[in-house]
Model the fold of this input.
Amino acid sequence: MKSDTSFDPYRAVRDLRTLAERTGGPDGSRRLCWTPEWVEARALLREELSTLAVEVEQDEAGNIWAYLRGQSDELVVVGSHLDSVPAGGWLDGALGVIGGLEVLRSLAAAPQRPQRSFALVDWADEEGARFSRSLFGSAAVVGTLDIAILRELKDRFGNSLPEVVAEHGVHIDALDGCRTRLANVVAYLELHIEQGPVLEHQGLGIGVVTGTVGIERERLTFTGQAAHAGTMPMSMRRDSLRAMSRFALELAEIGKTHSGVTTVGTVSCKPGVVTAVPGETVCTMDMRHIDAKALAAMFAEATATAHSAAAAEGCSVAFEHIFRIPPMIFDKNLVDSVRRAVKAVEGHEFELPSGALHDASEMARVVPTAMVFTNSIAGLSHTKEEDTTDEHLVMGLTAFHQAVLEAVNPG
Amino acid sequence: MKSDTSFDPYRAVRDLRTLAERTGGPDGSRRLCWTPEWVEARALLREELSTLAVEVEQDEAGNIWAYLRGQSDELVVVGSHLDSVPAGGWLDGALGVIGGLEVLRSLAAAPQRPQRSFALVDWADEEGARFSRSLFGSAAVVGTLDIAILRELKDRFGNSLPEVVAEHGVHIDALDGCRTRLANVVAYLELHIEQGPVLEHQGLGIGVVTGTVGIERERLTFTGQAAHAGTMPMSMRRDSLRAMSRFALELAEIGKTHSGVTTVGTVSCKPGVVTAVPGETVCTMDMRHIDAKALAAMFAEATATAHSAAAAEGCSVAFEHIFRIPPMIFDKNLVDSVRRAVKAVEGHEFELPSGALHDASEMARVVPTAMVFTNSIAGLSHTKEEDTTDEHLVMGLTAFHQAVLEAVNPG
Done:
C-alpha cells in the first residue's frame, strides 16, 4: 500500500482486515502481548511505517512511536494498542492504531509539514491479559507503574514478567526512561470501539467520550457457620450465601440509583457441597462511575449494605482491596473538538463516559486527552463476535481524522 | 472386656473411646469405608463378638451380622455403621454399632434365650464418602441399589467401586444374595447422634425420631448474558447471579414457611471474573421435609420461584435432577416403644424427624423401624469437634436398650 495525499478511511478498514487475517484464528484475535502473534502484528505496522518519511522508535516500555516533525515542537499524539485478549475481537485496540496510521499517512503525504509535530504510538500490553497488569506501556510513560509489583508478576505457566519482557527489549529497571516521551505533548487523541451497547441502543454509529470512569474493586468474604443441610433448622442458620445474595441484589440497586454500574462477577462457597449450608461465601465487587463524588457515595453505600446484609443473616463480612482508579475527565477543549467532528460526520453531539479503561485513562492524568467511539454490535467485545459495520468504522475514522487535524493545525 | 449379665452403658462409652483411639487421628475419625482403618475398626468389633456365643457372618454387600438365636425365628435387628467420613467424628455411626454390641452382650449373657431372635448389623459404607453412593449396605439388603450406576463409580483417585469392594469380598453382580437377610425381620432399631442442634436447643439429652425426611436435590443453571462490567448499563443487563440471588433468598422463605429446610450449598459463575457480568450461574438446591405433601409443595414453589427469579432479571433457568428420596415415616408401634423408653429415661416424649439419612431410611421401606437420638453438642457432626457428653450417651444407650428389650421380649 503506497500512501497518497488523501485520507482514506476505507484503506484503514482494509488494513484492519489484513491484520485480522494474519493474527487471528478460529477463536478470534490472538495478539496476546509478548507473544509471536503480537510481534507479527507489530511487524505489519513497521512495514507500513517504513514506506513513510517518519522516525520510528521503540521506547523503554516497548511502546512503538512513529514521529512526523511539524513546524513546531508541540506534539500531538494519537494511539492505541495492537495487543488483544487471547480470543479477542479484530477491532479492540487495532482500530485506534490503524486509524492513527492512516492519519499519519495523510499528514506525511501532505505538501506542507503540519503546524505541530505528530506521533503515532502503539502502546505495549494495554490488555494485561497475560500478567494481569493492564495499561503497561501507557502507565510506564506516565510513571504510574509499581516496579516492585511488576517484578513478582507471573503468567499462568509461571513465566515471570521481567524475564518475558526482556526478550522484547524491555528491562523493568530502565522503564522510567520512557517518561521523556511526554515532553512537548499538547494533546492525546484515541479512536476506539465502545465495547458496550449504548451507542447502538441510541441508533448511533459514533459518539463523543467524556472521560473514563473511576473504578473500585473489592473482594468480600461473608462468614457464617457451615452446617448440615438436613439437620440445621432454618431459624438457627448463619448462611453466608444468603448474606451474599442480599448484598448482590442491593448492590445492583446502588448502581441503578446513582446511574453508575455495579457488578458481582464471581462467587464461591465453602464447603461448597449440595448437603451443607455455606459457612463462607466469597464474592467480588466492581463499581464504576464517571463522577468521583458519586463513586465515593456508591462505595460508602455498598460497604454499609454489605454489613447490613451480613447482619441480617447472622454473618460478618470482611473486605479486601483489589483495585482502584479515579475517574479521568477528558480535556474540555479537546472534547469540544471531537464534538464538532462527530456533529459534522453524523449530525449529533451524543456523549458518553467510557466504562472500560483505555490507554487514554493514563494519558488523561498528565496531558489534554479525548476519545472518539464507534459503536459495538450488540455491545460485544473481548470475543470473536466483536464487530462494527464498515459504515460506522468509516464514520469513526473520519471524525477522528477531523479532530486530529484541528489539533495539529490549530491556527 | 468380658461380657457379664448386666447391660452396662458405661462400658459402651469406653468401647467407643477405644475405637476412636485406634482409628482416629489429629483430624478426627478416618474409618473411610473400604480402607485399612475401616477394616481395623471392624476387626475390633469381630474381636468383641468372638467372646460371645453368637454367629458372625459377612453378607454379599459386606455387612457384618452377629446373630443370637431366640425362642422364635422372628428377628429383631439393631445396627448402624462403623465407617466414617474422612475427617469425621467419633460417634457418627459408631454409637449405634457399639450400643448394639452392648445390647447383644447382655442378651447373650442372660440365663434365658430371648423370645425373638436378635441380630446386630454393621452396615457397609453408610457414608458413601469415597464413591458418592451412601447407604450402600442397607440399600443392597433392601434391593434399591442400581448396579449399572455402581459399576461406573470411581473414587477421586480413579479407582473403580467394583474393583475396590472386590478386595473386601464384595462382588457387585452377587449383591442380591444379601436380600435374604430380611426374611423374618420384625423390627429394626437404630441409635444415632442427632447431628443437628435441635435437642441441645431444647435442653434435652435424647429424643424420639419420627422418621427420616424426604429429600429433593436439583442443580439449577441460570442463564443470562455475559457482559463487560464497565460498559453494560444496569438497565440492559441479564445478570444470572442476580437471578440466583433472588432465588436463594426466596428458597429460604419457602423452607421457613413449610417448617422444612432448604439450602443453596454451592454456586459458580461464568465467566467468573471480577470484570464481567456473569452470563451463567449454577447452584445446587437441597430441600427436605418429613411430610411428602409438604415436600411436594415446597418443590413446586421452588420451581415457580426459580422461573420468576430468572424472569425478573431477563434470564432463563434449567433444572437437572440430582437425587430424590421420599420421607420414611417410622413404625407407629415401634416409635411408641421408643417414646416409652425416652420417657422412662429423661422424663419427656420430645420427638423430631431426622434431617439426615440413615440406614434406618432404607430399612423403613420394608420393615417396622424406629430410632433413638442423642443430642450433638453445638449440632456439629462430620468433623472432629463432633461430641456428646457421657451423661447423654448413657441416656441414649439406656433408652435404646429398653426399646430393644420390648421388641425382643414382647410378651
Observations:
- The longest strand of chain A covers residues 214-223.
- Chain A touches chain B through 59 residues (CB under 8 Å).
- The first helix of chain A runs from residue 9 to 23.
- Chain A is about 35% helix and 25% strand.
